Design the sequence.
DNA sequence: GGGCATTGTAACGGAGTTGTTACGGCTTCC
DNA sequence: GGAAGCCGTAACAACTCCGTTACAATGCCC
């Protein structure tokens, strides 16, 4: 996703440069702060999409900043801790941090974690207040119940729509068969895999281009289904 | 962490005093028992955060107490063994002890081990809430069930995923074969080492670079497996 | 009442998964 | 040095799971 804004807080110039360089190379817009106070000043003016926060800071430390942020906002926070400082991880996660990375870390690990956190946040947004859903050529409008693929409208039966709706609301998350059966059909339907199987098949017939190799509704053998993933 | 409660079981008053003094000085609350029976009586009333258990006890010995505890609870257990008694170490770990200390030991070693075990437990608590896991080039996302090694996605079968998931949730802790079999396969699978062996092998084929010298899933001969080295 | 859409049930074949067994290397213990 | 135990590896067979298809039951609208 292009241009998402990330605030990096670290007093070690070496790490600040490392993180900034890699994030910018990956296409993010990066802001920097060297102290907790500086970070709060920036945050008061402008809320980024993600904060990367070193625990060890002079003055107001990472925990303090994390707590202050959580008083007013739910933006995702990744903490940077010294490797082996397990109690820092525990404390950070209790304060509401979304993830942590142990120093030293590789650029690959950094980007993987950032992407993972942002992906979850984007999906959660879609699930919540959004009234429409888009994934590739698939488009849903939750208000009008209209579903289109490559611009062409697709007629879905009520059950098919409920299934797709639940999948879309939890896009990117693995949904077990029993979970789907309970949420789409009702509590008495746990274990009734046949209905789910057939309904998924019917849905795919209408949505997928090549239903042999489903693009949207992906099977996880022995587990359940998932709508879309990254990419 | 302040005020965690530790039960010490030893029939030698000299050690009992030594351990109690050092633990209390470090800020722990300490309970004492001189026999296995006494320990079980106390445990029936109140579950501490950690048990330190001498192997050599009159009557019901340390192994017996350890086994009885494990029937009902997963609280961490540290065994005290005579130095050089390697078979005691293996036996203890097999019974589900979390660590062992060879007598005689220094106060420093005692406190280091206690802290290490408690740290792992606290981490495991948090690991439950955690939605991702990283160790070296291995990355897991628990929501999407995606596993990547060096950025490349790895396809795991349901059983392989459950095994890796349990190993990751208890990273750094020795997991006995029976524990793995019970938690990943089910209660009826204790003693069925073959399945575990083969599944571990298949997992390594997919994860490890050089499966001859495993980097992630390490074997502890006669005991079980561990994901990631002890700190 | 007849036609149509929708939904649940049953059956089958194939792909992938899983448990079993066997064998050989390695270590450990007498 | 031989026996026993443990582990990794390989191949095999049974099985599970899923997609697919056909069919029956239900409800709805004209």
Sequence:
């Amino acid at each position: 996703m292009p241009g998402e804004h990330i605030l990096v807080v670290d007093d070690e110039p070496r790490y600040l440069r490392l993180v900034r360089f890699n994030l910018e190379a990956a296409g993010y817009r990066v802001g920097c702060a060297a102290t907790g106070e500086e970070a709060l000043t920036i945050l008061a003016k402008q809320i980024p999409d993600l904060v990367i926060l070193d625990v060890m800071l002079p003055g107001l430390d990472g925990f303090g900043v994390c707590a202050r942020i959580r008083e007013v906002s739910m933006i995702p926070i990744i903490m940077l801790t010294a490797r082996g400082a397990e109690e820092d991880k525990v404390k950070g996660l209790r304060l509401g941090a979304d993830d942590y990375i142990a120093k030293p870390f590789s650029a690959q690990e950094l980007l993987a974690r950032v992407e993972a956190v942002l992906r979850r946040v984007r999906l959660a947004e879609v699930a919540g207040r959004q009234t429409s859903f888009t994934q590739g050529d698939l488009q849903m409008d939750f208000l009008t119940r209209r579903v289109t693929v490559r611009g062409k409208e697709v007629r879905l039966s009520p059950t098919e729509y409920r299934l797709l709706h639940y999948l879309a609301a939890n896009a990117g998350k693995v949904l077990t068969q029993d979970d789907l059966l309970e949420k789409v059909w009702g509590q008495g339907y746990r274990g009734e895999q046949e209905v789910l199987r057939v309904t998924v098949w019917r849905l795919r017939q209408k949505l997928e281009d090549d239903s042999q190799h489903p693009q949207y509704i992906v099977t996880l053998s022995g587990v359940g289904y998932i709508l879309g993933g990254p990419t």
